[in-house]
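If your schedule permits, I should be very grateful for your opinion on a structural question. I have a record of one protein: its chain in single-letter code and its fold written as discrete structure tokens. Kindly check, if you would, that the fold set down in the tokens agrees with what the sequence suggests. I remain grateful for any guidance, and I place the record below:

***
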Amino acid sequence: MRSSIILKLLSTILVTFVLLFAIGAVLTSPAPTTVSALSVDFPVESVQIPNREQVIVHGWLVHGEPGGGVVLLAHSMRSNRVEMLSRARFLRNKGYSVLLIDLQGHGETIGDKITFGLKEAENIEVSVDFLRQRFPRERIGAIGTSLGAAAIVLAKKNLKLDAVILESLHPTLEEAVENRLKLHFGDYGSVLLPLMLWQLSLNLNIAIDELNPITRIDRLNAPILLISGTHDAHTTQSETERLYAAARVPKELWIVPGAKHFNMHTYAGREYEYRVDDFLSHYLKRYEEDD
């Protein structure tokens, strides 16, 4: 009887280990999608930006008005540049030029795994360099959602951006993983957290602490607008408020009532457009007196 109980316990532990490794593999597995053949309802220029390690960052460039500023758009995890099309459309209508990119391991930008901002940050760096070459007289801003926001913050190079909008950004990878484990396993998720973090660290070959946006956000020497939702279980309101406290001034915080961890533009609509345009126009638009 006792041996049977021990055997069941060992079997349960083994199954748990296998499941966690499977979950970790799913979390880091790439999400390639063919998007270049899609037809969009406004003119875009397909671009290919050379990255390190012979990777090409694929994207769409939308031309706005001279002096209107340029905005880089970076999507969330397991998505691609199509997620940011509605933002690109409204920004173009406001006169901004826009670059939508596929982060590595997503869309048409190759990558063997998703790295929670580690390698994705390199995509951001080369994309900003590309925009600076194409639009030497324009001010440059960026909007990142979730993974895209983390990639912006974790960039090792000084991006020298003129404005940054970070949506649904986690302060630490540990909290991001724990929140998701709790959503799937309830309170037992916290018990599984150490093993999951160890497995992710092993898989990515990096210390988990190096992927914490809250320790890097004060290095973003640019005005910041942080956006999150009151009902976001993936990144809680209190976590966003901690990020806000850690960021440099000037900074703004918008907690969207009722919003969860999804497309803020889709959810908040015109209110989103008003707030985002108000923030970006203040820092990116060039007026006659600037010349």
Q: What stands out?
A: The chain has a mean pLDDT of 90. The chain is about 40% helix and 15% strand.
